[in-house]
Design brief:
The protein folds into 2 domains: 80 residues, Glutaredoxin (3-Layer(aba) Sandwich), CATH 3.40.30.10; 106 residues, Glutathione S-transferase Yfyf (Class Pi), Chain A, domain 2, CATH 1.20.1050. It is built from 8 helices and 4 strands, in the order E-H-E-H-E-E-H-H-H-H-H-H. A 4-stranded mixed β-sheet has the order 2-1-3-4. Strand 1, helix 1 and strand 2 form a beta-alpha-beta unit. The protein is globular, with a radius of gyration of 17 Å.
Length: 199
């Protein structure tokens, strides 16, 4: 049994979604960053964390790739050219999309007031637009980033698209909006989304 630690309103949603895609049983400890459980598992208190028996994996990307490799799904095998391309997408999304969103968040509410630079968001939006243009070219007419196979970077990019919307970053590409729409219509996404506001 896996235990996912972190509110699904954060990056922990990526892990919950992957769990649903893989059809895995898991417990969810839906607490905020630096919550009691997260602080005990990760020195930074960041979420998500994944408890696997007595071990703990931290960082959403590491967790996703661990689950994908372990359960032989959502990924291409290590050592293949397809895996290299997949990892290239993952790294690009982390550097260019997730990184910009996290920098904006730190300068809006995460960092102490005196350490925030709100004006940086204008630069981040400009940089994001260039990054999205590159992604649009790479996606082209593919259904998913890797073609007809849904993989780890699709989870990352789709989650980031929702984060963009809630943070005021524009997504003006019809191609990318259609791509996101396909992914959020997946059954596993809908099941994961339900954990954000449980009844």
């Amino acid at each position: 049994m896996y235990t996912v630690v972190g509110s699904p309103k954060t990056r922990a949603f990526r892990v919950v979604w992957a769990m649903e895609e893989l059809g895995l049983a898991y417990d969810l400890v839906a607490e905020p960053p630096r919550g009691e459980t997260a602080a005990a598992l990760n020195p930074t208190g960041k979420i998500p964390c994944l408890k696997v028996g007595d071990a703990t994996i931290i960082d959403s990307v590491a967790i996703l790739q661990y689950l994908a490799d372990k359960h032989d799904a959502l990924t291409y095998p290590a050592g293949t050219l397809e895996r290299a391309e997949q990892d290239s997408f993952t790294q690009f999304i982390c550097d260019e999309i997730d990184g910009a969103l996290w920098t904006a968040a730190r300068n809006k509410f995460v960092n102490p007031q005196e350490k925030r630079v709100p004006a940086i968001k204008d630069i981040l939006i400009w940089e994001m637009e260039r990054s999205l243009q590159a992604l649009e070219q790479r996606l082209g007419e593919r259904e998913f980033l890797m073609g007809d196979r849904f993989t780890v970077p699709d989870i990352l990019l789709t989650h980031c698209a929702g984060w963009m919307r809630s943070s005021g970053f524009p997504l003006e590409s019809d191609l990318l909006r259609d791509y996101v729409r396909r992914n959020i219509n997946r059954d596993a996404y809908k099941k994961a989304d339900a954990t954000r506001n449980p009844s």
